[in-house]
Write a structure and sequence with these properties.
single chain, mainly beta
Length: 76
């Protein structure tokens, strides 16, 4: 896996894509976001957690199939 550089001016918006399997939920010391779970998609050995963040953005995270996430739950 390599790196790429780009020339951006100060203050220019940047969009970053992160794959769901690279996100973790509730690990001490990690960067945290606030939001509400809007859908939990069970796929057997894993599940996808769809959330609406406090700023209105959406988030998709992947978790183990036995993770206890519930629709409507708030997280911070």
């Amino acid at each position: 896996m390599g790196t790429r550089s780009a020339r951006l001016g100060t203050g220019e918006p940047v969009t970053v894509g992160i794959r769901p399997e690279h996100l973790g939920l509730k690990h001490p010391g990690d960067v945290a976001v606030e939001g509400t779970i809007i859908l939990v998609e069970y796929l057997g050995s894993e599940l996808f957690v769809y959330a609406k963040l406090a700023d209105g953005e959406s988030l998709l995270a992947q978790a183990p199939g036995n993770a206890p996430f519930k629709r409507g739950a708030y997280f911070a």
